[in-house]
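ESCALATION

Customer reports they have been waiting on this structure for their group meeting. Please prioritize. Original submission:
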Amino acid sequence: MLYRVKVIRYTGFMENCIFCKIIAGEIPCYKVYEDDNFLAFLDINPQSPGHTQVIPKKHIRWVWDVTNVGEYFEVVRKIALAQQKAFKTDWILSKIVGEDVPHAHIWIFPGPGAEGDKKDFETNQQKILSAL
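Update from on-call: job pushed to the front of the queue and completed.
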């Protein structure tokens, strides 16, 4: 007999999750966007200037399990469009893997040739905030 089993993914706050600690304010970040459901902040090991992580505030293991995934991707789109303006490039890359941190996250970052210093977090944060 075939049974349908609903697997419940991690939800809420996970004590050992670095992203949950960032959401809770226990670890500082360079925040570029926040609403009731999502947070976007600069990656501490950026691929390029303005490299941003976009995460749900609720602890969910995989991007595919985010119930309001359309809203999630609209936030990603909003940040990507701001990055195009802020770093004077049309080339914005996105990456969804999920192996580094067990919390749903989407990387978005300007491609090669983007203007700026990738480690100048304060300036990159202001550039994105100004472009939003």
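Sent to customer with the following note: Residues 1-10 have pLDDT under 50 and may be disordered.
Escalation resolved.
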